[in-house]
Amino acid sequence: MSKKQVAVGIDIGGTNTAFGYVDRGGHILVEDKLKTSQYDEAEVYVAALYEKIMLAGQKIMDDVEILGFGIGAPMGNINKGTIEYPANLPWKGITPVADIFRKHTDLPVVVTNDANAAAVGEMVYGGARNMKDFVVITLGTGLGSGFVVNGNLMYGHDGFAGELGHTTIRSGPNARECDCGKKGCLETYVSATGLKRTLFKILADSVLPSELRKYSFEQLDAEMIHEAARRGDILAKRAFEHTGQMLGVKLADVVAHTSPEAIFLFGGLAQAKELIFEPARESMEENLLYIYRGKVKLLPSELSSQNAAILGASSLIWSLKESKSRKF
Amino acid sequence: MSKKQVAVGIDIGGTNTAFGYVDRGGHILVEDKLKTSQYDEAEVYVAALYEKIMLAGQKIMDDVEILGFGIGAPMGNINKGTIEYPANLPWKGITPVADIFRKHTDLPVVVTNDANAAAVGEMVYGGARNMKDFVVITLGTGLGSGFVVNGNLMYGHDGFAGELGHTTIRSGPNARECDCGKKGCLETYVSATGLKRTLFKILADSVLPSELRKYSFEQLDAEMIHEAARRGDILAKRAFEHTGQMLGVKLADVVAHTSPEAIFLFGGLAQAKELIFEPARESMEENLLYIYRGKVKLLPSELSSQNAAILGASSLIWSLKESKSRKF
After folding, report:
1. Which residue, A218, A272, B63, B169, is the most exposed by fewest CB within 10 angstroms?
2. What ipTM was predicted for this assembly?
3. 3 state DSSP class of B54
4. What CATH number should be reported for the domain whose range is B4-123+306-322?
């Protein structure tokens, strides 16, 4: 019997690194994780990670053929296989993570950022399976984006295309401060954190009651705002409306740049469904140039949110295998 | 002796249609033009145009081999070979200009908008000859843009990628009205018309003297503002600074989207050189996410401005010939 082909998807996060053996259908056969934060040295970390991957795979190793290792990481650079100046990882500066990984294996190793991995994942396993031009927007603590243009991931001249979270949506003295050092970046408004900041502004501006008035900034998170909105809290709902409205304005710009067939929303905030989709869709349509109106689908990601990061990372390997025209 | 290969470049404008026979080096061997506005019927227009092209080519026809016809036109759609709902052409709705053209010839006919043609022209004849990821911004009456991603023109799902002129740069009640029906579009600030509007606002806001205070809105054009700025007129210079500054903000967004190696400025306003480049570069750098700073070149187009539109249109044919991976 021929062995089942699998790709290993690795999701490097600040706290944990999750990985899984994934088949072409997007099923995770085995998965496990490792504490990223315990490893100050990238070499030691990769050695431990590789060992743990091999260990986890032992029980299926006789039945599968590993095709390669796909890695999703913050500030992962697909051109160079590096992680560059990540804010929340233990290794500072530029870490040549693919090269270090290749000391342990001769198989392909592909590195990219989380949002690019999500975009390829959507193309390989998800709702973009028959699309050649689409965008995935990841709404988590920050806002990431991955663009697929004519069937290929757009990585740009230096591998860092798709930093939509740091495009400017507000200018002037009242624009919000961003972690990146700039002001008015999209992700300061449209992300889990942005939603919380917006709610706080609404709590300040309005005199209406809200169940969220009893929480501090530190106590509150997007999930609590989501639940309050579901229960009918007017100000929580208003926070979603504002967030969706600002997202829609920027999505109209995204369409004018790249003219995609669809835009997928992925991640925590996208779970709020129509609370975010409805105002986003309405405001996108309102701000679209007439030639695009009514043409661009705004859809939820079809990747299961629980394993999406592992799926996205593993999809890089299928994508590499299936398209000879792709560079990565 | 073997015949010299040429591509015919056709630039369809509201008033005139200019065309030329162009060799691979970007030399125009013969050129002529036709009054677009005289033809209410697209069929009649194309027949007259084709006849005029053949007539103009008579004296070189024995020495050249025509490879195809490249057409640059407002709202030209590269996927479908159509011109769709142009604001300033005699034919309304959707005109299948490539199909009509093919009634006269079996050679390849490629249609796209002016800015995409300029981008391919820059890649074939100009400063982007060795680049795979770059952007061309055309600054004329409006603002157009063409994106090249991984060596290919990005045309998007429906052929209308690159409408950067209609991304939003200002919102709220004071945002400028755009011809497209929206408010706050980039081209209402950054274009020859945008420069004039900005100057008028500055004339209103400031009490400083200016030689331009004696002209009406209808009398004034970008060239006059340029000349006044060269002569040291403070308010004219300020209009360029504001225009460049706003352009720079949007260029930073463009970089975050596509991570290009270079951005080329093309067209009338780009002729103002450092008057526009300096504030644009400064404001772009200021607004760039740290990972891009100091990496992206902001350059003048290397296409001769006089024939740039014909060159751009003709380049579509060379690009078609030289890249089998290209769809158009």
Report:
1. A218
2. 0.86
3. helix
4. 3.30.420.40
